[in-house]
Design goal:
Elements: H1 6-11, H2 16-25, H3 27-48, H4 55-80, H5 83-93
Helix pairs in contact: 2-3, 3-4, 4-5
């Protein structure tokens, strides 16, 4: 299946070039991006489903999505050195001291 990562680009609109670069050069990032896209899609489908989704399943998906978002932010932090991604990754992980770029 070919991924467009449009949802990921929508989630991180200021990092679209970096996202497409990383998804084509970093296998771990690509796997995280695919998982993030898949979970986002599952949550969207559960939201619009006629059948009520199991709350525990939804909570697990939301927790996994948050973990992936933190990991993706950390990867963007490393790739770009931008404090924005470093701070967001740290905040999502609960770190008190985010890594800051040298620039």
């Amino acid at each position: 299946m070919t991924y467009s990562f449009a949802g990921l680009a929508g989630e991180f609109p200021d990092a679209v070039p970096e996202i497409f670069e990383l998804t084509s050069t970093d296998e771990a990032f690509e796997q995280m991006a695919r998982a993030f896209e898949d979970i986002t899609q599952m949550l969207a489908e559960a939201e619009t489903s006629i059948d009520a989704p199991d709350l525990r399943d939804r909570e697990k998906l939301e927790a996994r999505r948050a973990e992936l978002r933190a990991a993706l932010c950390a990867a963007l932090c490393e790739a770009t050195g931008q404090d924005r991604w470093c701070e967001e990754a740290a905040g999502l992980r609960g770190d008190k001291n985010p890594r800051r770029s040298a620039a």
